[in-house]
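Regression test attached.
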Amino acid sequence: MLTVLTVKEAQQRILSSLNGKRTDMEIVPAMNLLGRVAVEEIVATEMVPSFARSTMDGFAVRSTDTFGASESIPALLTLKGNILMGKEPPGNLEPGEAMAIPTGGMLPPGSDSVVMVEYSEVLGNQVAVYRPAAPLENIIRIGDDFQQGDTVIPAGHVIRSQDIGILSALGHLQLKVYARPRVSIFSTGDEIISPAEQPKPGQIRDINGFALSAQVLEGGGDPQYRGIIADEKEELRSGLLASFDDADIIIISGGSSVGTRDVAVKVIDELPGGGVLFHGVSMRPGKPVIYGISGGKPIFGLSGNPVSAMFSFILFVRPVLRLIQGLPAFPAFVPYVEACLETNLSSPGGREDYVRVMLSGEESSGKEILLRARPVFGGPGLLSTMVKGDGYFVIPRDQEGIPEGSKVKVFLF
Amino acid sequence: MLTVLTVKEAQQRILSSLNGKRTDMEIVPAMNLLGRVAVEEIVATEMVPSFARSTMDGFAVRSTDTFGASESIPALLTLKGNILMGKEPPGNLEPGEAMAIPTGGMLPPGSDSVVMVEYSEVLGNQVAVYRPAAPLENIIRIGDDFQQGDTVIPAGHVIRSQDIGILSALGHLQLKVYARPRVSIFSTGDEIISPAEQPKPGQIRDINGFALSAQVLEGGGDPQYRGIIADEKEELRSGLLASFDDADIIIISGGSSVGTRDVAVKVIDELPGGGVLFHGVSMRPGKPVIYGISGGKPIFGLSGNPVSAMFSFILFVRPVLRLIQGLPAFPAFVPYVEACLETNLSSPGGREDYVRVMLSGEESSGKEILLRARPVFGGPGLLSTMVKGDGYFVIPRDQEGIPEGSKVKVFLF
C-alpha cells in the first residue's frame, strides 16, 4: 500500500477502477450547453442548408448560358425578376434567363451558378454577363453543410459555440448531456480554520477547500465545499459517509503529517465496499496522494500543501471529472506555449517535476519572439509559486535537470 | 467609409474608440470569482504563513547543535516535548534541545531547522540526530509566501483557482471585480426565423444569435439574445435604442447582402452621438464587418454567414469584451498546438486567411508525435467547417499560400 507509483501508473489505476462510471443524464436547453458533453450522437434530421443559396449579390444563371462571355462579347440574358430574401423564387429559370439574387437568397430551379454584380449589368429587361460563370460558382448547395443522416455531433463531444449554432440550425433546442459531476470537498487538519476566522498561533485558514472548489468548477464539475472536519477517525468516517449520496467524487485534503495521513488512509480503507488502491506518487510537488474507492465512488486524499493538492487535482482528479462526464480522461490536444528556459534547473530525478514558471516576452508587430520562462523562486510548499506563475512545465522522471536555453512546453494555469 | 482595413487596423480603431471604458464594479464572494477580473490590487494584510512551519515530520532543532553529526557520532539532544498541529509549541527551544514536530507544525522560538524522522531516533528522553541539519532546512519561514505589504493580486488580474486559494489564506472572502459585460445580440435578415419554427423554402433558422451568445459567455460576458429583428431601418433603429440602457456592447448579425448591409450601416451611422467607424476588413472569412459607436457604446454589425460572424467575434468583439472587463484587449500568452500541414494550401493573399483544420495524431506513451493538421473541406460559408474543425491557423496577408509539411500553430476552438 505504501508503494510509490509513477504518475502514469497512478492514473491508470484510478481510471481502471471506475468501470466506465458516468454521471446521470439531463436535458439542457441550447443556450446553456457550452462545455457540456453530449450523451448521444446527433444526426441531421434535415438538409443543412435546406435549399441552394447564393453566397453573393448577383444573378442566378444557367452556367452553360454564360460560356464564352467576355467584356467585349457579353452573354445577354433575359431578366426574369428578383428573388427576395426568405422567399421562394418567382419561378423556374429557363435557358437564356437570369434572376437577380441577394446573398443568402434561394436559387431558382434550373439555375446552377451565380454571377456577381460586379461582372454583370442590367440593360432594360436584359442582363449582360461579362464573364463566364462556372457551374456551382458562388452557391451553397442543399446539404453542403450537412446531409440528412450525417453525424453532426458525435456522442461524447463537448459542446462549443459552433455546435450550439448547428443545433439551432437544426431546430434542436435542447440536448441530453451528462450531469455535472458533484464533488464533495472536505478540508482536514487540526491547524485548519475557516477563512472567516482570525488564526491563533499555529493555525492557518483553509486554502485547499476554496482552491479545489474552483478547480472543480473549472473542470466542469459542481463543487460542494463541506468545510473543515477534524482528522479524527470517527468524525472523518461519518462526514464522508454523510456526503456519499450527493457526491460523485469525494476529496479530502489535509493531513500532511504521517499520523493524520494514516488516519485518512485507514478511514478510506475501511469504508464499505472498497478500500485504498494506492498511496503515494513519485512526483514533485504532490507525493502524498491517497486514492481509494467505496461503493464505486472515487475518493481522493490530497496533501494539505496547496501546491501539492492543486497538482494532484490536475493530474488525478481532473481525468476522473472528465471521464465521468462522458469525455476521454485526457484531451487529445492540450494547448501550450513554447518558451525558452532562462536558467539551468536541477531536478531530483526519479519523479516527475512540475516546475512553475513566469513567462515574459510578447509578439510585437507580427514578429514572433520566443517567450522566456523563469522558474518561480520558492519551494514546492509555497502557494505563491502558483499565484506568481503563469503556468508550468514538466521535467520527466528520467531527467535530472534541464539546461538554460532549453525550449519547454508551458501549460498555462 | 467603405475602405477595407487590415485586421490590425480594425482592432486598433475599435480599441481606441473605447476611451478606456470599463463595466461597473461589483463585490463577488470568493467561491464565485473564477475568471473574474480584480478592480484593485490586493495587498497582503498579514504575513503568509503567519508563523514558521515545518515541511516534514521530524524534530525542530537549532542547526548549530547538529553540526558534525553522523551515523557513527550522532548529535544527542534533549527531547523537550511534542508540538501539536494548530497549537503553539510548549515553549522556547534552548541550545541542546529538540522538539517533535509534525508537517505543518509551528516551529518553536529558538529553532531554525527540522531534522527528518528518517535521520533521527528517540532514545528515552533524548533524540539522536544522525545528519547535520542545515539552517532553514525543511521549514517555511514567516512570510515566505507573501510578506505583509506584498502585492498578492495585481489590479486587472484574472482570478484563477490558486488566486482564490491565496485570497482565502488572507481571509479575503470577497473581491471587487468588474461586472460581466452585457452584450445585446440581434439577428436580422428577412430569411431568418426562430430555431423553434419550421422553415419554409428560402428561410433558415437563426444560427448566429445562439452561436454568438455562446461566444459571449465563453468570453466572460453576459449574453442577452434579443431575437430576430427585421432589416428595416425604423425597426432596427428602435430595437437598438431599446436595448441601449441594458447593454455594454451591441451586436447585430445578418444582412449579408449589400442592400441590408447598407441599412445596418445607415442605422448605426445615424444613432445619436456616434457613427460608423469602419466597414469591411481584409480577412477571410468575415469581410463585411461594420463597427460603430453610439453614446460611447460599441456596436458591431457582423455578417449573416455564421463562420464570418464567429471569426469576427474572435478578432473584434472578444478584445472589447476583455478590455471593458478590465483585462488587456489581447492576452499576453495564447496557447496553441503545433501541427504539420497535410496539404498544400493556396490563399488569396492581401487578406488574412483563417483556415479551419482537423487535428490527428496523439502523444503515445510519452513519445512526442507531431500532430497533423488537415484543412476542413468546404467554403468559408459553411458552418460545418467550424463544427468538424478542432481549431484554426492563420495565413498572413502577405502570404499567398503555404506548402504541405509546414509547421502551423493551431488555436483550438
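Expected vs. actual: identical. The first strand of chain A starts at residue 25 and ends at 29.
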